[in-house]
Design brief:
Radius of gyration: 18 Å
Structural class: alpha/beta
Oligomer: single chain
Largest sheet: 7 strands, parallel
Number of helices: 7
Distance between the termini: 48 Å
Strand content: 15-25%
Strand order of the largest sheet: 3-2-1-4-5-6-7
Number of strands: 7
Order of helices and strands: EHEHEHEHEHEHHE
Shape: globular
Length: 258
Amino acid sequence: MAAAPLFDLKDRAYIVTGAGRGIGAELAAGLAEAGACVAVAGRTAADCEAVAAGIVKTGGRAIGVPFDARDEAQCAALIAETERAFGRLDGAVVNHGIGLHRDALDTTRDEFAGMLDGNLTSYFLMCRELGRRWVAAGKPGAIVLMSSNASFLAYDELAAYGVAKAGVDQLCRQLAAEWARYDIRVNAIGPGYMTASMKGIESIYDAPEVKARILPRIPAGRYGALRELLGATVYFLSDAAGYTTGQYLAIDGGYSLV
């Protein structure tokens, strides 16, 4: 029997968190187009159900699952529901998160803690539950963490967010090193300025005066389309990346190079 194509995701099952809108919704739809079954997960049930319904309408397989990644019991329940629906779970895109634009001098303790909780601790909890499930079952798995080039570049008013994303990068490396023996791979993608932003900062980067400052600093000369994150995601989840773990891939039009 011939080996399956390296980038083939047909009939595999994946969770995408933060998938009710933006990057997560785009990646969920893209994975379904690639033949995968997708659990569309996020905090707003109506949004998740709408994205899943759109996938099903075009011939894909998807379920919408509302959950809060800050709650470890809900992370475990999401995994169990996905396995019940599709009979397997091959990987996950951990993509949820919130943004905060605030000067460090004005950032409160609660705001800083909220950034860590929503953008880092919740990533750890989701990954830990995935790891526990796969190790207990003796099965391999692949995780893609959505980071940001704010994890290693300093931006005005992103101290709390940047620190949280720097933690995501180290979480990627740490889990990759610990779990490689179980055939569980963990990699990260770092988007730059994209055509849609996360909840909490949706309108900031679309303001004409802000774009006028940002675009000249992007070698590609434009914001990235959400679809341009799909290829790297498919690669990291597929057998093509079977010997790739603990890596960070910037997808930012060259912004982090200059």
